[in-house]
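Project outcomes to date are best conveyed with an example. Our students and postdoctoral researchers have been running inverse folding experiments weekly, and each run begins with a structure described purely in tokens. The record below, which covers 417 residues, was selected by the lab manager from last quarter's runs and is presented without edits.
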């Protein structure tokens, strides 16, 4: 089912009775060439690019709940390519280029809005660090502009520039950064994968991974056994649990990251704004709600909810940065389960079991990576070799320490990334 302006007008005038389901609801077959465990953004994009780029259509995506019910629907929707280290910078640069043509590629409005992202800095040391980051971004082929205090004020006049503890010195503007609609990204990839013949199987929880002679042979599910030549695990915060079914212990911890949204307000925030000293980030949705978040809850958990101390911490950061929003009512909050690696960078690699592949460890960067993650993971599964943009995301770097990518300079501690 295609989309065009005339179809939307016609359906609006006739009670929207002509729309059909956007994807099939198939029963699982007994045998597939590839099974993808996880029906979130990364799993759906992997399935789509397997079909689009590599011609593999005998593919099933298995989701224990409903498509897009995990982290892809539980985030603050930020899209950016302002990474610093080699290995990360080219990957997220590739992802941003895919974002920029995603709607045309999928024939679906994912509401990608390149409204610009401004990272604030509050000290001379932070300014120096952002100058280095901006130069690295430009060298990579992305955009970056250093703003002084007056430059930031021209874009963000509502900030508290004279906060006694964290005065605003300036910011790094990334004009191509912005946001997208998280649900629409999942729906767009699901629809596009289904149109190419991929089976999207919901309410199908994987309960075991079958291995024989060191090679994966299929999976056990709540809807029966499914044979497969290759299996990809891409389940975000559940990565450790699913990998354990194959006898693996991953170098990840699962932590909760909360997000919040306010009541709808008139347009006030045109950009995505990141508070350099408070790990606070905020934007305004098309419906008018202020969408914001902060730090992890700092304790391992599989619960998709947060705790009140971290909610209070995020509200304090919001008030420190922009006290003008203090009377806005917070409508709801939610939590995503983040799979945190020791160096804050992801894993896209083969496992010791032949035919079994892993895509995990996205920390804070999962949503913005959805297109490039699917592209690289599909390439790995189809070609059995890493895509050049994800060549550094090896699993064995945590065994010998060679090739670690500590983007934030935080050290080898999961929850600090």
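After processing, the design step wrote out the following sequence:
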């Amino acid at each position: 089912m295609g989309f065009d302006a005339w179809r939307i007008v016609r359906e609006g005038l006739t009670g929207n009775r002509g729309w059909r389901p956007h994807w099939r609801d198939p029963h699982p077959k007994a045998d597939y060439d590839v099974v993808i465990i996880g029906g979130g953004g990364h799993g759906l994009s992997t399935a789509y690019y397997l079909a689009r780029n590599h011609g593999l259509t005998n593919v099933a995506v298995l989701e224990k709940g409903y498509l897009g019910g995990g982290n892809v629907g539980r985030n603050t929707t930020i899209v950016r390519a302002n990474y610093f280290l080699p290995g990360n910078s080219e990957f997220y640069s590739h992802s941003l280029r895919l974002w920029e043509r995603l709607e045309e590629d999928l024939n679906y409005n994912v509401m990608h809005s390149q409204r610009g992202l401004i990272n604030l800095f509050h000290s001379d040391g932070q300014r120096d660090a952002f100058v280095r980051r901006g130069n690295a971004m430009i060298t990579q082929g992305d955009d970056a502009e250093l703003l002084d205090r007056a430059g930031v004020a021209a874009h963000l006049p509502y900030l508290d520039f004279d906060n006694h503890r964290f005065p605003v010195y300036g910011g790094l503007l990334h004009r191509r950064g912005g946001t997208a609609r998280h649900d629409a990204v999942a729906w767009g990839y699901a629809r596009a994968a289904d149109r190419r013949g991929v089976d999207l199987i919901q309410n199908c929880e994987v309960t075991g991974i079958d291995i024989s002679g060191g090679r994966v042979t299929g999976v056990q599910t709540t809807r029966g056994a499914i044979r497969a030549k290759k299996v990809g695990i891409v389940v975000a915060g559940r990565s450790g649990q699913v990998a354990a079914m194959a006898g693996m212990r991953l170098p990840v911890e699962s932590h909760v990251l909360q997000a919040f949204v306010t009541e709808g307000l008139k347009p006030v925030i045109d950009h995505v704004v990141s508070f350099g000293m408070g790990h606070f980030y905020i934007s305004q949705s098309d419906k008018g709600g202020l969408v914001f978040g902060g730090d992890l809850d700092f304790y391992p958990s599989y619960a998709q909810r947060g705790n009140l101390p971290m909610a209070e911490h995020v509200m304090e950061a919001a008030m420190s940065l922009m006290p003008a929003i203090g009377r806005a009512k917070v409508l709801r909050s939610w939590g995503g389960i983040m799979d945190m690696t020791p160096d804050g960078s992801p894993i896209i690699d083969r496992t010791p079991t032949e035919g079994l592949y892993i895509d995990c460890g996205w920390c804070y960067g999962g949503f913005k990576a959805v297109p490039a993650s699917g592209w690289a993971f599909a390439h790995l599964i189809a070609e059995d070799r890493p895509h050049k943009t994800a060549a550094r995301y090896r699993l064995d770097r945590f065994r010998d320490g060679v090739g670690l990518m500590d983007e934030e300079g935080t050290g080898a501690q999961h929850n600090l990334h």
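The longest helix spans residues 124-140. The two ends are 42 Å apart (CA to CA). The training component of this project remains on track.
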